[in-house]
Amino acid sequence: MRLVRRRIDSFPLPNGQKLAECLIFIFQYVFFIYHLALKQPAFLQKGDKIGLVCPAGFMPPEKYQECLLQLIGWGYEPVLGATMHSQSTNYFSGTDAERLADLQKMMDDDSIRAILCGRGGYGTSRLVDQLDFSRFVKKPKWIIGYSDITALHLHIVQQYKIATLHAPMAAAFNEGEYANTYVQSLRWALEGIKASYTVPAHTYNRVGKAEGRLIGGNLCMLAHAIGTSSAPKTKGRILFMEDVGEYLYTLDRMMVQLQRAGWFDELAGLVLGGFTETKDTPRPFGKTIDEIMHYFTKDAGYPVCYGFPVSHDRENYALKEGVKYHLSVGTDVVLKEV
Description:
Layout: H1 2-9, H2 16-36, E1 49-53, H3 65-73, E2 77-80, H4 96-108, E3 112-117, H5 134-138, E4 142-145, H6 150-160, E5 164-166, H7 181-190, E6 196-200, E7 208-218, H8 219-225, E8 238-244, H9 248-260, E9 269-276, H10 289-297, E10 304-305, E11 319-321, E12 324-329, E13 332-337
């Protein structure tokens, strides 16, 4: 300590007070940068275990059998949570307490290297604030899913700076679809292969290039997060969104909510996915889904991509939430992991 003191005292600064202030600033800066840094869970190796849970809606066992077979074929060992063979007679895969306990057990089990959600639906946001992430942050694992699982993605990235995987779930493997490029993109992501996707241009695209951390998911869940501790910081981010089964006017209303909350003000880029199975009222809303989105993006000062393959349909590429991507919108669209 005396040696350190002598060296500090001999440092060519005007006085000790300024040196102390300098050291405090350096410490605060390092602390700040450390907590800004995003962690990526370890990529998977052959023989690793993948836990399967349903933190929201009920899923009958016959709907995930093909998924189990393919995960084994990929070289992994699937481990079923209690909610995957639930005896529930209502919408959910169990009570809140049962779903919470199942997800918590998988998160705390160090032998589980990734957690694949069987399906979405509704119910994950009922659990988020009760989950204990203390063990998870020490040894993070990939959380995989989309739709209602957006609640987990947003919370984990925003609160714990840990990357997650917005990707196909168990039912996507059925009817031979496990071989398509979208389900395979999940496999490549788990193996650590960086994503690079190229898609055609769209009439309403806004050209440009951007780089930033990717966040987003289901539009309904994005709006649902506003005012909560899960709501993301959108400044300098690339935001993506998709939805299914919504009325055109409710999609418009949710976009208004995000706009009023300032989500679009300082984005680096915006990626619009599939808005499938949209519905209209008996008296027509008067706009298509693309026209609705164009109203909110027509004056954007950043690149905007329409029709990106992220959706509730088979076209659903795996995307790492919280990870840096490069977005280039021109004669075609390239979204590439940095």
